[in-house]
Amino acid sequence: MRVANLNSDNSVIIKKVIKNAGESMNNVVEILPNKVKDMSLSKLGRYQIDISEKEMPGLMSLRKQHADKQPLAGFRLTGSLHMTTETAILIETLKDLGADVRWASCNIFSTQDEAAAAIAKTGTPVYAWKGETLEEYWECTLQALTFDGNLGPNLIVDDGGDATLLIHKGYELENYFNEHGNYPEITTTNPEELVVEKLIRKVHKLNGNHWHNIVPDIIGVSEETTTGVARLVQMEQEKKLLFSAFNVNDSATKSKFDNLYGCRESLADGIKRSTEVMLAGKTVVVCGYGDVGKGCAQSMKSYGCKVIVTEIDPICALQAAMEGYEVKTLESVLDKGHLFVTTTGNKDIITLEDMRKMRDQAIVCNIGHFDNEIQVDALNDSDAKREQIKPQYDRYTFPDGKQIFLLAEGRLVNLGCATGHASFVMSTSFANQVLAQLFLAKEKPEVKLYNLPKELDEEVARLHLKHLDADLTVLTKDQADYIGVKVEGPFKKDEYRY
Ligand SMILES: NC(=O)c1ccc[n+]([C@@H]2O[C@H](COP(=O)([O-])OP(=O)(O)OC[C@H]3O[C@@H](n4cnc5c(N)ncnc54)[C@H](O)[C@@H]3O)[C@@H](O)[C@H]2O)c1
Q1: How would residue 239 be classed by pLDDT, with cut points 50, 70 and 90?
Q2: pTM of the full predicted structure?
Q3: What are phi and psi of 428, to 5 degrees?
Q4: Which domains can be identified in the chain, with CATH numbers?
Q5: Which of 109, 158, 226 has most ligand 1 atoms within 8 Å of CB, for mutation?
Q6: Which residues are paired to 396 by β-bridges?
Q7: Is it the case that residue 4 has pLDDT exceeding 60?
Q8: Which of 261, 292, 372, 497 most suits a substitution to test ligand 1, by most atoms within 8 Å of the C-beta?
């Protein structure tokens, strides 16, 4: 969920609240064994898991390496990450390493129902299906965060930060209530923020100290994506982090692979599966030229599209220009683009007024983490008539007769209209997730935001080379001394950008 910042100094109020513990101690949810769309899909899900395991060498080799030592035994682990086939393999890896796992998806459209069913079939509590409402989505997150006896997790795998956010929001509400004896007025008009505000009030009425009870047991979270890390950085700067956090996204083997090569394939997958449009010859406007934008622009170029990039950062704009893309402002190309893709992690990139000015039959989609890159709420409240062609594929007709198509209701198109990235690249991301979880469980580090050391980042890459028949050159000692590194690495300084 996209949210306003947290706004109280948690550390001051903690002591006060603990005194009030035990006032009301009901269960915050009725714990269900699982909640998925259709258990009969589990066989299909298992086939897909079996096939994908062969494409996830990094994850499978970490499983083999650590399973007999059970380094996660005794740890309760909550995941809030797209419930896809690849995530099923991550879940089974974490379980093989000993963790007690509960899972929810981190997007209402991103679950592969067959993968969720296959995981539920093994007895792992999973709460996810494709097409959740916002209320269901946040209830699922709460279910995944609640273990028997009203306990919370020790470890969290988060993607976009929603599990982390729910805990911090609930904790902040308890602080407020303990200080003022009532709830703060709800001022937001954002539909999703309203759902969260109502949910934390419901939890508070059932158990007035729930979040303060569970936070001391939380060792930390490992965060998957750029947007979630941006939130964590803000929280750390404002000294609001309640537990340690591990930045998985900024491992080179995550952002320089998943964000780039993953999106390079899955963007087109989402567009094609929903619209079946011919891409060659079309003009595509890619908003943002970071890691995701670079992958998207390259993908569209490879289909024979004319690609125009919009950027705010002169370095990224220059990179785009030197790759041969036109770099323009969005306003100047609204009538040129056949297809618009937002990739910024920022908000209000395509406004309602922008959509009115687009050419007839333009396709609009977003691959960034949250749906607020496109003003979907404003579009839905506008005078445009909405028709659902099929789920996650809508046509809007403006009063002047002009039409646009919106994919996945503005949520990540590659997961809403297709099944996300292919397994191999998710193996690089999830190998980082597992290493982060092992680090948190073993070190129980002080509350701070951490990055994966370069040695482990290189190790993740190494685990994937053989699968692609890549042979690595080994430095001689003489060469290593000459460039000032060790023969076995690390080969680059931390600041190196790849
Ligand atoms: N769908 C997926 O599978 C997937 C995978 C990885 C990351 N993500 C998400 O995609 C988003 C982008 O991730 P990233 O790693 O590329 O981030 P990034 O920071 O590398 O790139 C974002 C770029 O957008 C630019 N930008 C910001 N505001 C802009 C504006 N108003 N107009 C034009 N450009 C603007 C920034 O300058 C930056 O270069 C994030 O939300 C991330 O969480 C999605």
Answers
A1: very high
A2: 0.95
A3: -70, -45
A4: 10-159+161-223 (3.40.50.1480), 264-416 (3.40.50.720)
A5: 226
A6: 386, 404
A7: no
A8: 292
User: Rounded mean pLDDT of the chain?
Assistant: 95
13 pLDDT exceeds 70?
no
Share of the chain above pLDDT 90, in %: 95
CA distances from 420 to 130, 134, 136, 159, 424 (A): 13, 20, 22, 13, 12
Q: Sign (positive/negative) of CA torsion 244, 4, 111, 52?
A: negative
Q: What digits encode the pLDDT tens for the residues 484-495?
A: 999 999 999 999
The residue whose CA is least distant from atom 17 of ligand 1 is 290
Ordered strands of the 326-327 beta sheet: 326-327, 306-310, 283-287, 339-342, 362-366, 403-407, 393-397, 385-390
Q: Is the pLDDT of residue 340 over 50?
A: yes
pLDDT of residue 19: 39
Per-residue confidence (pLDDT) for residue 26, from 0 to 100: 82
- Checking if the pLDDT of 411 tops 60, the result is yes
Write down the residue that tokens 């690495």 correspond to: 489
Ligand 1 site: residues with CB under 6 angstroms? 225-227, 255, 258-259, 262-263, 287-293, 310-313, 316, 343-346, 349, 367-369, 412, 414, 421
